[in-house]
Amino acid sequence: MSAEPIIEVAGLHKWFGMLHVLSDISLEVEAREVICIIGRSGSGKSTLLRCINFLEEPSAGKITVDKLVVAAGGKGREHRRLVHNIRLKTGMVFQEFNLFPHMSVLENVLEGPVTVKRMDRAKAVEIAEMNLERVGLLFKKDEYPNRLSGGQKQRVAIARALAMEPKVMLFDEPTSALDPELIGEVLNVMKKLAEEGTTMLVVTHEMGFAREVADRVVVMAEGEMIEEGRPADVFNSPRDPRTQALIERYRSGGAK
Amino acid sequence: MASEIQKRPPSVIDPHQGMGEALVVLQQRNRLIQGLKVTGVWIGLIGLVTAGLLMLHISPAYMLQHYDVILQGAGTTIYVSLVSIAIATVLALFGSVARLSTNSIAQGVSGFYVSLIRGTPLLIQIYVIYLGLPQIGQQLSELGFPALGKLFILDAVPAGILALSLNYGAYMTEIFRAGLQSISYGQREAAIAIGMTPLQVMRRIILPQAIRIIIPDVGNQFIAMQKDSALVSVMGVWEITFIANRYARRDSKYMEMFIVGATAYWILTIISSWLQGWLEKRMAQAYER
Question: Can you give the pTM of this predicted structure?
Answer without folding.
Answer: 0.82
